[in-house]
Amino acid sequence: MKKQVIKRYSEAFKRQVVGEYKEGHSISALRAKYGITGNGTIERWIKKYACASLRHELVVIQRADEREHQKALEARIRELETAVAQLTLEKIVLESSLTEAEQLLGMEVKKNDVPPSSKHASSTL
After folding, report:
1. Which of 22, 24, 14, 10 is nearest to 44 (CA)?
2. Chain centroid to CA 23
3. Are both 100 and 69 inside the same structural domain?
4. Domain contains 35
5. Which DSSP symbol is given to 103?
6. 91 lies in a domain?
7. What is the pLDDT of residues 23-71, one digit of tens each?
8. Closest-CA residue to 50 (of 20, 74, 26)
9. Helices marked H in 27-111
10. Whether pTM exceeds 0.70
11. Total of domains in the chain
Protein backbone atom coordinates (compact mmCIF):
# COMPACT_ATOMS: atom_id res chain seq x y z
CA MET A 1 0.00 0.00 0.00
CA LYS A 2 1.26 3.47 -0.95
CA LYS A 3 1.98 5.90 1.84
CA GLN A 4 0.00 9.15 1.67
CA VAL A 5 2.13 12.28 1.77
CA ILE A 6 0.76 15.15 3.82
CA LYS A 7 2.15 18.54 2.88
CA ARG A 8 2.37 21.36 5.40
CA TYR A 9 2.73 24.91 4.10
CA SER A 10 4.21 27.80 6.06
CA GLU A 11 2.15 30.88 6.94
CA ALA A 12 4.42 33.03 4.77
CA PHE A 13 3.87 30.75 1.77
CA LYS A 14 0.10 30.78 2.28
CA ARG A 15 0.08 34.57 2.46
CA GLN A 16 2.21 34.77 -0.67
CA VAL A 17 -0.26 32.60 -2.61
CA VAL A 18 -3.22 34.66 -1.34
CA GLY A 19 -1.34 37.83 -2.32
CA GLU A 20 -0.91 36.52 -5.86
CA TYR A 21 -4.61 35.66 -5.92
CA LYS A 22 -5.40 39.26 -4.90
CA GLU A 23 -3.23 40.47 -7.78
CA GLY A 24 -5.48 38.62 -10.21
CA HIS A 25 -4.05 35.14 -10.64
CA SER A 26 -6.63 32.37 -10.84
CA ILE A 27 -6.81 29.61 -8.27
CA SER A 28 -6.16 26.95 -10.90
CA ALA A 29 -3.07 28.80 -12.14
CA LEU A 30 -1.71 29.10 -8.59
CA ARG A 31 -2.45 25.43 -7.92
CA ALA A 32 -0.49 24.45 -11.04
CA LYS A 33 2.35 26.91 -10.38
CA TYR A 34 3.04 25.67 -6.85
CA GLY A 35 1.93 22.04 -7.24
CA ILE A 36 -0.85 22.31 -4.68
CA THR A 37 -3.03 19.23 -5.11
CA GLY A 38 -5.85 19.86 -2.63
CA ASN A 39 -9.01 21.17 -4.29
CA GLY A 40 -10.08 23.43 -1.42
CA THR A 41 -6.67 24.29 -0.03
CA ILE A 42 -6.19 27.71 -1.64
CA GLU A 43 -9.86 28.58 -1.11
CA ARG A 44 -9.44 27.99 2.65
CA TRP A 45 -6.33 30.18 2.69
CA ILE A 46 -8.24 32.94 0.91
CA LYS A 47 -11.05 32.75 3.48
CA LYS A 48 -8.52 32.86 6.30
CA TYR A 49 -6.17 35.59 5.01
CA ALA A 50 -8.31 37.74 2.74
CA CYS A 51 -11.61 39.55 3.09
CA ALA A 52 -14.80 37.66 2.23
CA SER A 53 -15.85 39.98 -0.56
CA LEU A 54 -12.58 39.68 -2.43
CA ARG A 55 -12.89 39.68 -6.20
CA HIS A 56 -16.67 39.73 -6.31
CA GLU A 57 -17.40 41.95 -9.27
CA LEU A 58 -20.56 42.89 -11.10
CA VAL A 59 -20.15 42.42 -14.81
CA VAL A 60 -22.77 43.95 -17.08
CA ILE A 61 -22.90 42.66 -20.61
CA GLN A 62 -24.79 44.87 -23.05
CA ARG A 63 -25.23 44.95 -26.77
CA ALA A 64 -24.17 48.12 -28.57
CA ASP A 65 -27.77 49.27 -29.09
CA GLU A 66 -28.55 48.71 -25.39
CA ARG A 67 -25.49 50.75 -24.42
CA GLU A 68 -26.55 53.59 -26.75
CA HIS A 69 -30.08 53.47 -25.35
CA GLN A 70 -28.66 53.62 -21.80
CA LYS A 71 -26.53 56.65 -22.71
CA ALA A 72 -29.55 58.36 -24.31
CA LEU A 73 -31.61 57.74 -21.17
CA GLU A 74 -28.85 59.14 -18.96
CA ALA A 75 -28.61 62.23 -21.18
CA ARG A 76 -32.39 62.68 -20.96
CA ILE A 77 -32.23 62.42 -17.17
CA ARG A 78 -29.57 65.16 -17.09
CA GLU A 79 -31.76 67.37 -19.33
CA LEU A 80 -34.79 66.85 -17.11
CA GLU A 81 -32.80 67.54 -13.94
CA THR A 82 -31.57 70.79 -15.50
CA ALA A 83 -35.14 71.72 -16.46
CA VAL A 84 -36.38 71.01 -12.93
CA ALA A 85 -33.62 73.17 -11.47
CA GLN A 86 -34.45 76.00 -13.88
CA LEU A 87 -38.18 75.82 -13.11
CA THR A 88 -37.48 75.75 -9.38
CA LEU A 89 -35.42 78.92 -9.69
CA GLU A 90 -38.16 80.58 -11.75
CA LYS A 91 -40.76 79.62 -9.13
CA ILE A 92 -38.62 81.11 -6.35
CA VAL A 93 -38.20 84.35 -8.33
CA LEU A 94 -41.93 84.58 -9.03
CA GLU A 95 -42.88 83.89 -5.41
CA SER A 96 -40.45 86.49 -4.10
CA SER A 97 -41.70 88.99 -6.72
CA LEU A 98 -45.26 88.34 -5.58
CA THR A 99 -44.28 88.83 -1.94
CA GLU A 100 -42.50 92.08 -2.82
CA ALA A 101 -45.52 93.32 -4.79
CA GLU A 102 -47.83 92.51 -1.88
CA GLN A 103 -45.61 94.50 0.49
CA LEU A 104 -45.46 97.48 -1.88
CA LEU A 105 -49.22 97.49 -2.48
CA GLY A 106 -50.02 96.81 1.15
CA MET A 107 -52.52 94.11 0.27
CA GLU A 108 -52.56 90.40 -0.34
CA VAL A 109 -52.83 89.25 -3.92
CA LYS A 110 -55.38 86.45 -4.05
CA LYS A 111 -54.36 83.35 -5.94
CA ASN A 112 -57.06 81.70 -8.01
CA ASP A 113 -57.71 78.04 -7.27
CA VAL A 114 -58.75 77.28 -10.84
CA PRO A 115 -57.29 79.07 -13.87
CA PRO A 116 -59.87 81.06 -15.92
CA SER A 117 -59.54 78.77 -18.94
CA SER A 118 -60.45 75.75 -16.80
CA LYS A 119 -63.56 77.49 -15.40
CA HIS A 120 -64.99 77.89 -18.89
CA ALA A 121 -64.18 74.32 -19.86
CA SER A 122 -65.91 72.84 -16.80
CA SER A 123 -69.07 74.95 -17.20
CA THR A 124 -69.59 73.81 -20.80
CA LEU A 125 -69.51 70.14 -19.87
Report:
1. 14
2. 24
3. yes
4. yes
5. H
6. yes
7. 889 999 999 999 988 888 999 988 888 765 455 666 778 888 999 999 9
8. 20
9. 27-34, 41-49, 64-105
10. no
11. 2
